[in-house]
Every structure is written in structure tokens, then in C-alpha cells.
Write a structure and sequence with these properties.
This protein is an alpha+beta fold. It is built from ten helices and twelve strands. It has two domains: about 240 residues, no CATH class; about 45 residues.
Length: about 375
């Protein structure tokens, strides 16, 4: 049986666009041995450290991934559409996942965190056997010919050309003019996050100093020959009283003064500077504060407006991912002998209360009924 079961002109042209890649069995974008670092690897390590260090940044990216939502595909040929949906739902992804949602989720996270994302369609003979999210540390993204992005594998101390570049999926987030490299959503946050971490570290240090109470015990010296012995005895009794898990009395003879170390100092107010830094992070991530558990909005109306803005942001992210999904669908349809005609329908983005939606639908239906009754009366 041939690779393409249909031999009409449309299928043949689609086959050419997919390329002769049916002998590609192994993953092309996974380096076995690597002795050099790709460009911008230090920048990516910085963004990775930001996600590990600042919880609100990590939570924002996960929130965006969840809010992105799912999608369905449809074809004019119902049988082709059903088979395509089954494939997208069950396709093997990386080493431990299934379904295109898992692939798109990791792909989207990489895109937001590092500004670029690279994936691969893995073939065996004439079938797609899986989708692979390539590590950006294993590949180099460069400008190729006009309107092309060149992907090279970093292996054995050199850059190796990818044998089947038509199987690669590449996206860039807000690239600069003439650049193949995208811009991470975290750009600009290292400085702000550094200040935030200094405040948190200082708070921890101050509480360790002032929260764990320490005492200064002083005794007025006298001219007695037993002064040193009494001081040692008093020190031993004080240590015994402080280390005991039960309440103990401390008895001393003479002019003894006990003071709390640091009792006169006050911990600096941190709420305002911390909020200022968090506001910068939230503004950069585009997540409404109430979705992250930050109660900054004084009115519910403000939250609704923020939700509308986030919906616009998610629509823009979806537009970046559509070409990736389209390429996967197109290659699968061609390899299975179907016309490469399909449509992608994203699920509706909604962050409003379902009760409010139900009330809105009820009021709409009621107003339409009243209008019909008024028209009947006038007639």
C-alpha cells in the first residue's frame, strides 16, 4: 500500500507540503551527547530560576495554561473528522502523556517562559506515532532564508542540521523585527523579583532575630573573691531555665538586670513595598489579581473588566498556537489519505459566574417572550 491512498491533485499537493519524511522514526530534536551550550541558555536559566523562586510567577503561568482552554476540530468528511479527533485525543506525547492538550500545554508554557517553543511530529512509516516537546537546550533557533526559521541540533560539540525540518513545530512570542527569537513574558521581572526576594529574605532574618527572643543578663560586679563563681552559677541556672520545656523560676542574688535583645527595634513595614513589587509582576503577567488570591479590587465591576482584558490576551495566545495545531492536523489528514480541509474551534473563554450567565439567559428569553406578546397584541 502506498503512502498516500488518494492520488488526486489536492492530496498530491498536500503530500508535497508535508514532505517525504516517512522514514523518520527517532526524535530528531533530542541530543544524545552535548558539549556546548546553545545561545541564550543563561537567559533561560534565569527565567527558570524566577519560576522556582517567585511563586506568583509560577502560579500565573499555570493559570494562563489552564485558562487557555481546549479546542475541537471538524472536517467536511465526518469520518475523517471523527478519526482526527480520536487521534488528537490519544496521540502519544513525550514519554508519559497522551493527547494533544498535554502537548499544547507544555508547548504554551515554554513559549511564555522562554519566548520560544519547539515541538516535533514523530513518524514511523506512514503514521504519526507521537508528539515531542523539544528542550530549548538541545536546539539552536536562528534566522534562515527569507520567511524561514532554522533549527539546528546541538550535539557532539557542534550544531547539526535537522534532517526533516518540515516535521518541526516552532513558535515565537512577540519577536523583534527580523528576529526568530521571541521575547519571554518574564522579561523585565528579574530586577523587580530581586527586590521582592530581598524584602522577603529581610523579613525572615528580622523574625529570626526578633521573633526568637534573646535575653541579655547582666550582673553588677562586686569586690568579693567569689564573684566569678557566682557569675558562673547564675549563668548555669539561667541556661537551665531557658532550655527547660517546663516553666522554671530563675533566682539570682545581687543586682541582676535582664533585658530583651532587640525589644526596642521595630520591623519595617513591608506591606506597601511588597504590594508595589507584586503589582509590577501581575501587570506583566496579565493575570487579574483576584485569580491569584490578591484582593486588591474594591468593586466587582473592576474584576469583570480585568476578566475581559484577560480574555483578549488568551485570544492572542490562541492565535499563535493555531498554526501549530493546523500543521499537525494537516499532516495527519494527508498521511491518512484525506483532504487537508478542517476547522479549529476553540472553547469559549469565560471567567464569569455561571449563575450570572444563567440569569442573563433567563432575562434575555423573558424579554423576547414579552416582545412577542406585544407584537401579537398590536396585530
Amino acid at each position: 500500500m502506498g503512502l498516500f491512498r488518494k492520488t488526486d491533485k489536492a492530496a498530491s499537493s498536500a503530500a508535497v507540503s508535508a514532505g517525504s519524511v516517512t522514514d523518520a522514526v527517532s526524535v530528531q530534536t533530542r541530543a544524545q551527547e552535548k558539549f556546548m551550550l546553545p545561545a541564550y541558555s543563561g537567559e533561560r536559566e534565569l527565567y527558570k530560576a524566577l519560576r522556582e523562586t517567585v511563586p506568583i510567577i509560577d502560579a500565573s503561568i499555570y493559570k494562563l495554561r489552564r485558562l487557555l482552554g481546549g479546542f475541537t476540530v471538524a472536517c467536511e468528511d465526518e469520518k475523517a473528522g471523527q478519526r482526527l479527533r480520536d487521534f488528537l485525543e490519544n496521540v502519544k506525547v513525550n514519554s508519559s502523556s497522551n493527547g494533544i492538550d498535554a502537548f499544547i500545554g507544555v508547548y504554551f508554557e515554554e513559549l511564555l517562559t522562554y519566548g520560544n517553543a519547539v515541538g516535533e511530529i514523530v513518524l514511523s512509516e506512514d503514521e504519526i506515532i507521537g508528539l515531542y516537546n523539544a528542550s530549548l537546550d538541545d536546539v539552536e533557533i536562528e534566522n534562515g532564508k527569507a520567511f524561514e526559521t532554522k533549527i539546528s541540533l546541538i550535539e557532539n560539540g557542534a550544531k547539526t542540521a535537522i534532517k526533516y525540518p518540515e516535521l518541526l513545530l516552532v513558535s515565537a512570542l512577540n519577536p523583534a523585527a527580523g528576529e526568530a527569537k521571541g521575547i519571554s513574558i518574564l522579561r523585565g521581572l528579574p530586577f523587580v523579583s530581586g527586590i521582592l526576594m530581598k524584602i522577603y529574605q529581610t523579613i525572615g532574618t528580622n523574625w529570626e532575630r526578633l521573633g526568637n527572643v534573646r535575653f541579655a543578663v547582666s550582673c553588677k560586679a562586686d569586690d568579693s573573691v567569689y564573684a566569678a563563681d557566682r557569675a558562673k552559677q547564675m549563668a548555669a541556672e539561667w541556661q537551665k531555665a531557658m532550655r527547660s520545656h517546663e516553666i522554671n523560676d530563675f533566682v539570682a542574688v545581687g543586682d541582676v538586670k535582664i533585658q530583651t535583645i532587640g525589644a526596642d527595634n521595630q520591623i519595617l513595614e513591608s506591606e506597601i513595598p511588597v504590594r508595589q513589587m507584586l503589582e509590577q509582576i501581575v501587570a506583566k503577567m496579565g493575570i487579574p489579581p483576584f485569580l491569584l488570591g490578591l484582593s486588591w479590587s474594591s468593586t466587582e465591576r473592576m474584576s469583570s473588566q480585568q476578566a475581559d482584558v484577560l480574555t483578549t490576551e488568551l485570544d492572542a495566545y490562541r492565535a499563535i498556537l493555531v498554526p501549530v495545531i493546523s500543521k499537525i492536523c494537516r499532516i495527519w489528514l494527508v498521511l491518512n489519505g484525506y483532504e487537508p480541509e478542517y476547522s479549529i474551534e476553540w472553547n469559549e473563554i469565560t471567567m464569569q459566574d455561571e449563575v450570572e450567565h444563567a440569569n442573563a439567559r433567563y432575562l434575555t428569553a423573558r424579554s423576547e417572550a414579552l416582545e412577542r406578546e406585544m407584537r401579537k397584541e398590536t396585530e
